[in-house]
């Protein structure tokens, strides 16, 4: 080979190494085997239609977002009868009558007319074997969420999802999982969401890792008619195994998270801050290990504790047999109290990859590192 050719290929290799766009790092915990779009050549959508097409087709894809995709108005707006379950004050959320919710569950609620953006009410379909990765802080999806339903092996990293009819219950969920397996949601920022920031449906969602996300509950409309979003994280599902690590969850008032179905949740090294209602709901038949988390100004740590909860604050040695290490104590500042002494379910961690844990004192730095900040 000529020297100039050798130089050229060395140069190309260098450029490729430096500029390769794709997933950073690997998932910890239950979804550690996720590969998403793997080594597929990256694609760079430039329109909402292209984004929808790349996410929903049956190819393995690495989809790089380097701009905002604004879906508001793309499916029109609807005006219909909804309801006002918490009154009609300016800061109160109203509700869309989805599946008869206003009639069946809030039947005494005042009926009111609601107008909303149609695109936000149902997320973009995401197929199997996809990586969706934002560049810097540029990857924003406005006015529509992501729907990973009946799909497996998906990575969503370093994007922001915002503005899903935040004034309305059923206005839209940011990320929905159902009938899935191996999903990693990492460094995602969610804000101004009408319904759930992340929701795992009632079917099996299997192995899921939710890490380094910024769940921003700051809003102008809520059930409490204040600025604290109620509908944070909803972890349903049959036999789901969820690692929730290094997330910054703040300014919410409920469901942060709600754990239901038969979910096993490992909540480790999260920063729960400024929650003026409750953080956890732990329904019967669920199992929650909460270690190394920092709770700051969280009124109620758990509301409705019917499932199994292990909080290894005084002695973490019960984790050794199943996790291969001791568990970390949680830290509390200006927060409520709880106790969780049931370690009998920890054997359910055996055979899985378990996320590591650091002392809770390391967690407050998530204020600046969580969300789409890569
Ligand atoms: C995802 O990729 C794997 C490995 O290449 C393949 O076996 C599987 O069929 C793919 N799934 C779909 C739904 O395309």
UniProtKB/TrEMBL annotation:
Gene3D superfamilies: Single-stranded right-handed beta-helix, Pectin lyase-like. Its EC number is 4.2.2.10. It holds the Pfam family Pectate_lyase_4. It is found in: Secreted. Keywords: Carbohydrate metabolism, Lyase, Polysaccharide degradation, Secreted, Signal. Residues 1-20 form the signal peptide. GO terms for biological process: polysaccharide catabolic process. One of its GO terms (molecular function) is pectate lyase activity. The keyword Mitochondrion does not apply. The keyword Protein transport does not apply. One of its GO terms (cellular component) is extracellular region. Residues 95-301 form the Pectate lyase domain. It comes from the Eukaryota. It catalyses: Eliminative cleavage of (1->4)-alpha-D-galacturonan methyl ester to give oligosaccharides with 4-deoxy-6-O-methyl-alpha-D-galact-4-enuronosyl groups at their non-reducing ends. SUPFAM superfamilies: Pectin lyase-like. It is an enzyme of class 4 (lyase). PANTHER family: PECTATE LYASE 18-RELATED (PTHR31683), PECTIN LYASE A-RELATED (PTHR31683:SF16). Belongs to the polysaccharide lyase 1 family. This is pectin lyase. It comes from Cylindrodendrum hubeiense.
């Amino acid at each position: 080979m000529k020297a100039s050719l050798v130089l050229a290929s060395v140069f190309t290799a260098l450029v490729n190494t430096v500029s390769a766009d794709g997933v950073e790092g690997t998932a910890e915990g239950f979804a550690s085997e996720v590969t998403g779009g793997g080594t597929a050549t990256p694609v760079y959508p430039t329109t909402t239609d292209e984004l929808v097409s790349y996410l929903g087709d049956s190819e393995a894809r690495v989809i790089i977002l380097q701009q905002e995709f604004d879906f508001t108005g793309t499916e029109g707006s609807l005006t219909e009868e909804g309801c006002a379950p918490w009154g009609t004050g300016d800061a109160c959320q109203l509700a869309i009558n989805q599946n008869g919710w206003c009639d069946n569950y809030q039947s005494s609620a005042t009926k009111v007319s609601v107008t909303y953006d149609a695109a936000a009410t149902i997320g973009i379909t995401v197929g199997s074997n996809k990586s969706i990765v934002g560049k810097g802080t540029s990857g924003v999806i406005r006015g529509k969420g992501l729907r990973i339903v009946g799909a497996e092996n998906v990575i969503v990293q370093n994007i922001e999802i915002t503005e899903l009819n935040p004034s309305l219950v059923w206005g839209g969920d940011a990320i929905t999982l159902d009938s899935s397996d191996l999903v990693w949601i990492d460094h995602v920022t969610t804000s101004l969401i009408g319904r759930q920031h992340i929701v795992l449906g009632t079917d099996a969602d299997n192995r899921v890792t939710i890490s380094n996300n910024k769940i921003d509950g700051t809003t102008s409309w809520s059930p409490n008619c204040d600025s604290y979003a109620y509908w944070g994280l909803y972890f349903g599902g049959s036999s789901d195994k969820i690692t929730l690590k290094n997330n910054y969850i703040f300014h919410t008032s409920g469901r942060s998270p709600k754990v239901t179905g038969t979910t096993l949740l490992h909540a480790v090294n999260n920063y729960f801050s400024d929650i003026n209602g409750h953080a956890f709901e732990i329904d019967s038949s669920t199992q929650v290990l909460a270690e190394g988390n920092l709770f700051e100004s969280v009124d109620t740590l758990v509301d409705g504790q019917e499932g199994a909860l292990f909080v290894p604050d005084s002695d973490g040695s019960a984790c050794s047999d199943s996790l291969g290490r001791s568990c970390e104590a949680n830290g509390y500042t200006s927060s409520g109290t709880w106790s969780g002494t049931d370690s009998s379910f920890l054997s359910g961690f055996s055979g899985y990859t378990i996320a590591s844990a650091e002392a809770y004192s390391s967690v407050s730095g998530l204020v600046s590192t969580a969300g789409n900040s890569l």
